[in-house]
Amino acid sequence: MSLPESSYPARWWHTLGDGRVQCDLCPRDCKLHEGQRGACFVRKMEGGRMVLTTYGRSSGFCVDPIEKKPLNHFHPGSSVLSFGTAGCNLACKFCQNWDISKSRDMDRLMQSASPDKIAETARKLGCASVAYTYNDPVIFAEYAIDTAAACRELGVLNVAVTAGYIRHDAMVEFYAGMDAANVDLKGFTNEFYVKYCAGELQPVLDTLVYLKRETTVWLEITTLLIPTLNDSDTEIRALSEWVFEVLGPDVPLHFTAFHPDWKMTDLPPTPATTLTRARAIAQAAGLRYVYTGNVHDREGGTTLCPGCRKPLIVRDWYEIPEYHVGADGRCPHCGATIAGRFGAFERAHGARRQAIDMT
Asked: Mind listing the pLDDT tens digit for each residue in 189-242?
């Protein structure tokens, strides 16, 4: 049985002259009459104001390895308490978490937890961080921001796993509470975003530039490669060169494998060879840390020193059989600095996932 709907005052909206309200959270600019919901489904006009209907409620909590986010340069091997809500402000036909992100009712929201409860649970379980994930945290930004503040009071870090589809004013407030972000760069043409995501490319690029140039948030990027749609050499090269030229060579880039799902079951899974090809193209473009995901590829998961090219963090799926980065983030062989956020490493959390009951 799902939890009853809540109505939490939303930020980032204004009234229009015709009695409607406009949501200013993301570039969709939804304009709503009384009782109507936005495209994300979880923000609606109620009593002449904008409200968030999922504050304090979640589709579930799990302890994961940080590498599942995926983040390879943010406290590698640590555990993270992950949770999401329901809904999404994009409409990707290939969504890999569609049962949560595309939910149009509240049947997925089975647990409730206050920001303080989440922070206390993360600390109790020994998690280095809390991840706002599964569906896009942009649409439950008020809940995420309050939880992030509670986490910081207890020394717990905050991670956003997001498509980066957000307006500037909300972006500033949202990322002020985050310590790391993995942003889905779903393709590198506006045509792809319009046709397959019901969005646009430029706002995502703006988010990436903001994160890299105007914040201290650790940034990594993920691109899901879909056969025949966004996996050409030309597009992969353009994307990689943009990251190199605009964001710099030290931003980790993850190429991950698509599997048929949601409204895109007519295409085959991404071959491992496509990910290997993409990784080689990105490395040739000058990127120092390029990874493959959703496939078993020990080489594609290993962090190499940009100086001496020796393997420093060897990954086998989510296991870390070898770890050679100092707490200062330096290579023990040549002294080169490895981009990222590192600390003392004892042992990796590993691939295990633990469901958490917050009741």
From this structure: 999 999 999 999 999 999 999 999 999 999 999 999 999 999 999 999 999 999
State which H helix or E strand residue 158 sits in.
Answer: strand 157-162
- Closest by CA position to 151, among listed 133, 127, 175, 134: 127
Give the residue from 147, 61, 150 showing the smallest Cα distance to 358: 61
Which residue bears the tokens 């048929």? 260
**Phi, psi of 171, deg, nearest 5:** -60, -45
Rounded Cα distance between 313 and 307, Å, is 14
At 248-285, the pLDDT tens digits run 999 999 999 998 877 778 999 999 999 999 999 999 99
CATH class, domain 57-356, is alpha beta
The tally of CA atoms less than 13 A away on the side-chain side of residue 28 is 24
Cβ atoms of 93 and 196 within 8 Å: the answer is yes
CB 130 within 8 A of CB 147: yes
Q: Which phi and psi angles does 210 have, rounded to 5°? A: -60, -50
Residue ranges covered by each domain of the chain:
8-52, 57-356
Residue 336 buriedness (CB in 10 A; 0-12 / 13-18 / 19+): middle
